[in-house]
Design a protein that fits this description.
By secondary structure, this protein is α/β, with parallel strands linked by helices. It has one domain (about 20-310): Alpha-Beta Barrel (TIM Barrel), CATH 3.20.20.70. About 35% of the residues lie in helices and about 15% in strands. The protein has 10 helices and 9 strands. The chain has helices at about 20-30, 75-85, 110-120, 140-150, 165-170, 175-190, 210-220, 240-245, 255-265, 295-310, and strands at about 35-40, 95-100, 125-130, 155-160, 195-200, 225-230, 235, 270-275, 285. The chain has a 7-stranded parallel β-sheet with strand order 1-2-3-4-5-6-8. Strands 7-9 form a two-stranded antiparallel sheet. Helix 3 packs parallel to helix 4 (about 140-150). The two termini are about 30 Å apart. Bound molecules: iron/sulfur cluster. The site of iron/sulfur cluster (SF4) has 10 residues, from loops.
């Protein structure tokens, strides 16, 4: 039997033993879709001093989204990227994605204007907004609710860890209680909005148990989507200084692969797993350099789940 026909995991039509974003999009929209990153020129309350200064210790601060230019109108950013994608890939459905910094850190009127602008873009089948849990007041959630009645909407919330001591260490500048409060208000006020939660493995001083605890806490929230990232040490960040002084040691590849497999086993099988590692940018990544071979990391996760005879949700009911 092949790894495809032998696969016991229900939410898959390949060898993947977790519910991939690709499979979710194909099931939802009938074909592959491309996410188009947009940069609306926002900043972050954790950088400009209104919540914190300097940002999260791994945040590269000045960098904006790869592939787009915040000085250009959003529609120009969108069409330029679609032209590039279409030159190599036959795709007709797109997801405008407000990615850079904190994309609800603006007035309600401006937030509404931007969402209503991008939902009208040609070929847009869903819109996606990345933000912080301390930047979604009820008025903005009501705007998301109204937009979600016209087009599917996903909101991505950065949690990284459910441990408040870790949150202090990484200078996230909001608590787990604030995160869960935002999550609950989003579910209540805008029930059609899909919620994606970001977590990061390998945060300073976190043990394997801390990382599994975050997976269990996220499971209890029951998000629609999870993104699992590896902590990248990016040049010119506070984390890079810690790394250079030997205060911070990144995870080894086999440690990371094992932790991700452990987390996948704990998650609900119906939670979409949009990422199992992040995209390191070669020029700015200090460590871990093994993460630049993203396909190899993903393949190792597939192999480890196969070796264990395991899959997403195997320990969901334990
Ligand atoms: S919340 Fe995001 S944009 Fe803001 S400092 Fe942290 S990583 Fe950077």
């Amino acid at each position: 039997m092949s790894q495809v026909t032998d696969n016991p995991f229900k939410n898959s039509d390949t060898n993947k033993r977790y519910y991939t974003y690709d499979y979710y999009l194909r099931r939802t929209f009938g074909q592959k879709c491309a996410k188009i990153t947009l940069d609306a020129g926002f900043t972050c309350p954790n950088i400009d001093g209104s919540r914190g200064v300097g940002g999260c210790i791994y945040c590269s601060g000045g960098s904006r989204s790869a592939g787009c230019n915040e000085l250009l109108p959003l529609f120009t950013q969108y069409t330029e990227q679609i032209q590039k994608i279409r030159s190599k890939w036959d795709v007709t459905k797109f997801i405008p994605y407000l990615q850079a910094y904190t994309n609800s850190y603006t007035s309600p009127d401006n937030f509404k204007r931007i969402l209503n602008e991008i939902r009208e873009f040609d070929g847009a089948v869903m819109i996606d907004i990345a933000t912080r849990a301390d930047c979604l007041e009820d008025e903005k959630i009501e705007i998301l609710r109204d937009v979600s009645e016209k087009i599917p909407v996903t909101v991505e919330l950065g949690l990284q860890s459910s441990n408040d001591e870790t949150a202090k260490r990484i200078n996230r500048c909001h608590t787990y209680d604030e995160f869960t409060d935002c999550f609950a208000r989003l579910r209540k006020i805008a029930p059609r909005v899909k919620i994606a939660v970001h977590i990061i493995d390998g945060l300073p001083e976190e043990s394997r148990e801390d990382m599994l605890k975050t997976a269990v806490d996220v499971r209890a929230l029951n998000p629609d989507i999870i993104k699992i990232h590896l902590l990248h040490v990016i040049k010119d960040t506070p984390l890079a200084k810690m790394y250079e002084k030997g205060i911070y040691t990144p995870l080894e590849k086999d440690e990371y692969v094992n932790i991700v497999c452990d987390q996948l086993e704990l998650l609900c099988p119906d939670t979409v797993v949009e990422r199992v590692t992040g995209d390191g940018i070669k020029d700015s990544l200090l460590s871990p350099l093994w993460s630049l071979k993203k396909t190899s990391v993903i393949n190792d996760i597939d192999k480890e789940l196969y070796r264990r005879g395991s899959y997403q949700g195997k320990k969901y009911n334990f």
